[in-house]
Amino acid sequence: PVCRSSGSSSSRHNSESVSMAVDVCAMQENLRWDGVPAVAHHAELTKMDEFNYYISEYFETPPPAVNVLDALAVLMGWSGDSKQIVTKMTGQRHTEDKMYPEHFSDFLTKLKEADLVGLSATEKDRFRMLMTEQIAWQKFDHEKERYSEQTPMNSYDVLKCSQACFHLFEWMRSLLPDEERPPRFVDIDIRAFRDKEKELKQKGCWPEDPLPGPAERPF
Q1: Residue 163, Cα to own-chain centre: how many angstroms?
Q2: Of the candidates 28, 95, 16, 29, the residue with the CA atom closest to the CA atom of residue 61
Q3: Which candidate, 177, 81, 164, places its Cα nearest to that of 132?
Q4: I want to staple 3 with a disulfide (CB 3.0 to 4.6 A). Which of 25, 46, 89, 212 is the partner?
């Protein structure tokens, strides 16, 4: 099978918050960043200065991306909905707007300087909640043959929404103590991924495992 990138734009999602099956390439991408220093994620964000890298203005923003952007707003002292937050980041109000590289560069500088120390206790609690809480993101557990209506925030589901939001999530994830950080994936997805890996390797058609991040991944 052709291994395609998953998560470069939320325009690939409709408003239904349902994750039916594991995305092999998205999980490979997620796993290859495991253990990579946060500064590498910040560096990746320099390549993602367009409105549509984060969300599409034409569809409802998926819940994992909403939480990432809301957590960013807490960290930066902003307010507004997801699209307004992305505008504060990129300077663009719409996907067709001209780009504002200086505006985005200024945002990245401020992001790198931001930490939880300057937040109030209430703001810290809200940031932590948004980064780790259970969200309305339905998954089907094939082993138990039933749906799970909620899923905790995790790197894999954020990546499936947006590559840019993934790197933003990983940067903010690093601000939390190790024991409070959201997981890289949930059990349902990693079990499905390992089952698919076994199946496709037996058939001789498993996509080549990518190099560890931040090495460029060929597609």
Answers
A1: 6
A2: 16
A3: 177
A4: 25
Phi and psi of 140, rounded to 5°? Answer: -105, 125
Question: What does the block give as tokens for 39?
Answer: 């500064």
In sign, the C-alpha dihedral spanning 144, 145, 151, 156 is positive
Per-residue pLDDT tens, the chain, 219 aa: give them: 334 333 333 333 333 444 457 899 999 999 999 999 999 999 999 999 999 999 988 889 999 999 999 999 999 999 999 999 999 999 999 989 999 999 999 999 999 999 999 999 999 999 999 999 999 999 987 777 888 889 999 999 999 999 999 999 999 999 999 999 999 999 999 999 999 999 999 999 999 888 999 887 765
103/92 Cα distance (integer angstroms): 10
Q: Hey, how many other C-beta atoms are within 10 angstroms of the C-beta on 166?
A: 28
Dihedrals phi, psi of 212, to nearest 5 degrees: -60, 145
Strand partners, 138: 18
